[in-house]
Amino acid sequence: MNRNDFRFSERLRVRWAEIDAQKIVFNGHYLMYFDTAVAGYWRALAMPYAQTMAYLDGDLFVRKASVDYLGSAKYDDVLDIGMRCARIGTSSMLFSGAVFRAERLLVSCELVYVFADPHSQTSKPVPAELRGVIEGFEAGAAMVETRVGSWHELGERARAIRTQVFIEEQNIPVEMEWDEADAQAVHAIALNRFGLPLATGRLLQHAPGVARIGRMAVSQAVRGSGVGRAVLDALTNAARQRGDHELVLHAQTSAQSFYARSGFSTRGAVFEEAGIAHIEMTRRL
Question: What is the pLDDT of residues 1-40, one digit of tens each?
């Protein structure tokens, strides 16, 4: 078993509370590491777990967990927890996991999950939709589809994400969120393999040759999975195709590093917008 066996891995750093009297990670904590990686695996599939299971009218229950200890991790080690679905049966799934420190395999595991009725906890067949998403991911398929279009075409789904993120999560007043610019803007949304909208953003003409990106919103359950980057790239490509030579946006300071990784640079000082700290960022095309 090596790192190349895993399309997905979760990076963790060993905390002081996780080591024992032998000054190594206590054996039971590795199951927590693997469970954390399983949660990350669902994000990599662009599947908000609770919403997905409700849609499929089922849930996954652990039937068996086995761990093989080959080495020990220590305090402050940086670990990569690989996770993959090795087999899907009629109602069960076998996941293989591995803990790596650099290239060294420390611990491996097998986790057996059973898809079952959430109330009676009786097994039922793994839905074909879920099987298709997992098999597609392991085969290297893209997990999101990005669409670009008008408010008329995409507005209903974009509105749902923005309501969830800006109004419900960030408490931005409703009257500040919706404006006439939506009707003139180019919009982008990212959909998962079930057609669930996960992220959105819009593109306006700020000045001749300068495009303004705004209303970037990503559902909380899939942040950090690349879904927001897919929307940002789609809007960037739309600006480039219409001949713009510069992008400008007002980034919430908490998202500044996200835009920096996409080539944006800060300009000016931090300011407040809708009660939230922002900073202007730009990028040449």
Answer: 899 999 999 999 999 999 999 999 999 999 999 999 999 9
* Residues contacting residue 78 through CB under 8 Å, at least 6 positions apart: 11, 12, 13, 101
Q: What is the CATH number of the domain that holds 196?
A: 3.40.630.30
How far CA 203 is from CA of 103, 110, 212, 242, 244, in Å, comes to: 43, 46, 6, 11, 11
Total-model pTM: 0.90
Mean pLDDT computed over every residue of the chain: 96
The residue among 138, 160, 181 that closes a domain is: 138
The CATH number linked to 23 is 3.10.129.10
pLDDT in tens, 58-100: 999 999 999 999 999 999 999 999 999 999 999 999 999 999 9
> Could you tell me if 224 and 156 lie in one domain?
yes
Q: Using alpha carbons only, what angle is made at residue 189 by residues 185 and 191, rounded to the nearest 5 degrees?
A: 165
- In order, the DSSP letters of 1-38 are --GGG-SEEEEEE--GGGB-TTSSB-TTHHHHHHHHHH
Residue 128 domain boundaries: 3-138
The structural domain count of the chain equals 2
One domain for residues 78 and 128: yes
- Backbone angle region of 164, left / alpha / beta, with phi > 0 → left and psi within -120 to 50 → alpha: alpha
Q: What sign has the CA pseudo-torsion 253, 217, 45, 110?
A: positive
Question: What's the confidence (pLDDT) of residue 238?
Answer: 97
Distance from C-alpha of 51 to C-alpha of 194, rounded to nearest angstrom: 11
DSSP string, 150-163: -HHHHHHHHHHHHI
